[in-house]
Amino acid sequence: MSRSPGRKQENHKISRELFVLTYGALVAQLCKDYEKDEDVNDCLDRMGYSIGVRLIDDFLARSAVKKCRSYSETADMIAQVAFKMYLGVTPSVSCNSATGNEFSLILDKNPLVDFVEELPAERASLCYCNLLCGVIRGALEMVHLAAEVSFLQDRLKGDAVTEIGITFLRKPEDKKHRR
Amino acid sequence: LIYQLDHYAPRADTEKTFSFPLDLVLRPHDERVVVAFGQRDGIRVGHAVLAINGAEVNGRFTADGKDVLEFLGNPANYPVSIRFGRHRLSSNEKLMLASMFHSLFAIGSQLSPEVGSSGIEMLETDTFKLHCFQTLTGIKFMVLADPRQTGIDALLRKIYEIYSDFALKNPFYSLEMPIRCELFDQNLKLALEVAEKAGPFGPGS
Lengths: 179, 205
What we know:
The complex is a heterodimer of chains A (179) and B (205).
Chain A: H1 16-33, H2 37-63, H3 71-87, E1 92-95, E2 102-107, H4 130-142, E3 147-153, E4 162-168
Antiparallel strand pairs in A: 1-2, 2-4, 3-4
Chain B: E1 13-18, E2 25-29, E3 32-37, E4 48-52, E5 55-56, H1 68-73, E6 80-85, H2 91-111, E7 122-124, E8 129-134, E9 140-145, H3 152-167, H4 182-198
Antiparallel strand pairs in B: 1-6, 2-3, 4-5, 4-6, 7-8, 8-9
Helix pairs in contact in B: 3-4
């Protein structure tokens, strides 16, 4: 979690372990607070959403990227620039549908689950990293792109890879005006 | 309008002593008394009456409650010393002007002969330049500066960074609400000072 160079404050990094542990503590506390996995997932998603709506401006200010002209550019931007900037990993992007509005981000490395082997038996349908889905959803909404974001596959649940699916909900014809 | 800052250099206002009859034509405008005709000696059309005999006026009334125009129409009150200058905009006026600009911005981007226009980036007049930067999230940052001032683009990007840091990352700040964050103010003023030193010195806001 370091700030980009050229800023007035000194470049102090916060330890990655601290961040991963904090996230883990957050999920653990939510599991204590809520019995049902769906509730925990919802809560993580909502928290991620509030982070996303604020993080997007930080991302745009820091990276100075131009407006994306298509959904696939947007998905590439998220994977190659945003994930790299904030989590230090670069998921690969694949397009899932012929209509061009469903994409998958395949993460082979996910720093948030560094210390987690597998989910406990009673929490089988918990989406541990659901916060990320909320973040992406919130950020996209602030640039006027409605999307549904969820985990399609999760290594913690025994799948081969961790896959986040992004489905863009609106046609891009109203991207032209007022942005 | 969620934030505005006046970063004025000291404003020029003129104080003069007048004897009856007044050779300026004054008329009421909004809540003030302004000069309509008779520009001279640094007193320009549009300047408002700021103070009479050293006491600041309260809109159209003197400090002790008399109507300014009546007071100045009475020869018994002369000689009188009046201070004229550009009046500062009230926050309501700023709100109104910001909304007006927002609409103009939208109209501008629709009217543009180029496809995919990004809206009004700069408005240039004799006395100032208005720079506007709209982010992809729809926030607009506007800077009014001296026409000779350079480096405003970099300043706008810096202000965007400051906003994303000290306003957005403040957990107690709600989006779209007026910004009341101390750190935001401090860092913004710092950035403005840096920008002023870099370019020719001039009033900016």
